[in-house]
Design brief:
about 325 residues, 2 domains, five-stranded mixed β-sheet, two-stranded antiparallel ribbon, 17 helices, 7 strands
């Protein structure tokens, strides 16, 4: 999951967090909806737009951009997006602001002088390493700040404190329950450290059991889906040997099986090697050059623990050609 998507999830679920970031906790968030519209010619997409639900000209429209890395011509592109948005959607609102959330001040690129006036009047900048006071007042701001923490130890400590404070009421009357806080914290921590096991995550967050949380259950579903896909992929690869009996070439098999050409080629060569065909015969059967077949065929026979002499005889190649494939590996092992 990209960091932009995490911000989208936070602001869409809890728009009060956005106004907490701006130090405006008294805004009526029920009057806003969070979207991510696309503007065309050329195609741009905002990280987010907080748009009033009413069409009153006195309402304020907010454009939101997330910047965790330096980006050349960022402000030029931002103002181009905003102008295209106004041209395409023609919203009724007279007042608007561009809110840019930076990881820190080092990720900001200076705006050209031609934008000085609009920068002063219309751009609000938030630096996540400068909002400690706000983070102490708002659980939501604390969640946003987690996204900028790179230290596992510090992230764990902050996450535990946020979960403990989760009964706090957010501005605008939105209550962030402990369950919601745990799920959001989990999402952020797993984004930062995707290889954490459940036990490591539990220890990091100081929680007893995460098996029943929404985030962990979704993760389990993703793993199961990947396992099913992997099983399907394995079955497809195994079907290559059967398809070879029907005179399909590798490109046709790759297209029919929806597999990468290299995967099908490797499987086909391995299958034909087991049929004891030589390099020229395999190349002719698959419509490949012998130079494409020989390295893969040698590797396939090496995996079956054939000797160099046996490989050379079966493939109809010189012993020297086989040794060019095997000796560099042996030399590397000796060096190590």
């Amino acid at each position: 999951m990209q960091v932009d998507a995490l911000f989208y999830q936070l602001f869409q679920s809890f728009p009060a967090i956005f106004f907490d970031l701006l130090g405006q906790p008294n805004v009526d968030v029920s009057n806003y909806e969070f979207t991510s519209p696309e503007v065309k010619q050329p195609t741009f997409r905002f990280d987010g737009v907080l748009k009033p639900k009413t069409n009153s000209p006195t309402d304020i429209l907010y454009f939101i951009e997330i910047q965790f890395q330096k980006r050349a011509k960022f402000y030029t592109r931002l103002f181009a997006e905003i102008n295209l948005y106004f041209n395409q959607y023609d919203p009724p609102y007279e007042d608007w602001y561009a809110v840019v959330i930076f990881k820190n001040r080092n990720t900001e690129v200076a705006a050209p002088l031609r934008y000085q006036e609009v920068m002063e009047r219309r751009v609000l900048r938030v630096y996540l390493d400068d909002i400690e006071a706000l983070a102490q007042q708002s659980v939501g701001v604390g969640l946003v700040q987690l996204l900028a923490i790179t230290s596992k130890r510090k992230l764990g400590e902050r996450a535990q404190r946020l979960i403990a404070r989760a009964s706090q009421t957010l501005s605008g009357g939105d209550a962030l329950s402990r369950e919601e806080a745990v799920e959001l914290v989990q999402t952020i921590v797993l984004y930062r450290f995707p290889n954490l096991s459940r036990e490591e995550l539990e220890a990091m967050l100081g929680l007893a059991d995460l098996k029943h949380t929404k985030v962990y259950q979704e993760l389990q579903q993703e793993v199961r889906a990947e396992a099913l896909q992997e099983g399907e992929r394995k079955a497809k690869v195994e079907s290559v040997s059967r398809m070879l009996t029907r005179d399909f070439n590798v490109r046709e098999m790759a297209e029919l099986l929806d597999l990468e050409l290299s995967v099908v080629t490797d499987a086909a060569i391995s299958s034909l090697v087991r049929s004891e065909l030589n390099v020229k015969q395999i190349a002719q059967r698959l419509g490949l050059e012998t130079s494409q077949v020989m390295p893969k065929a040698i590797r396939a026979l090496l995996s079956e623990h054939k000797s160099e002499e046996q490989i050379a005889r079966q493939l109809g190649v010189t012993l020297a050609a086989v040794r060019r494939m095997t000796q560099p590996k042996a030399q590397k092992l000796e060096t190590n």
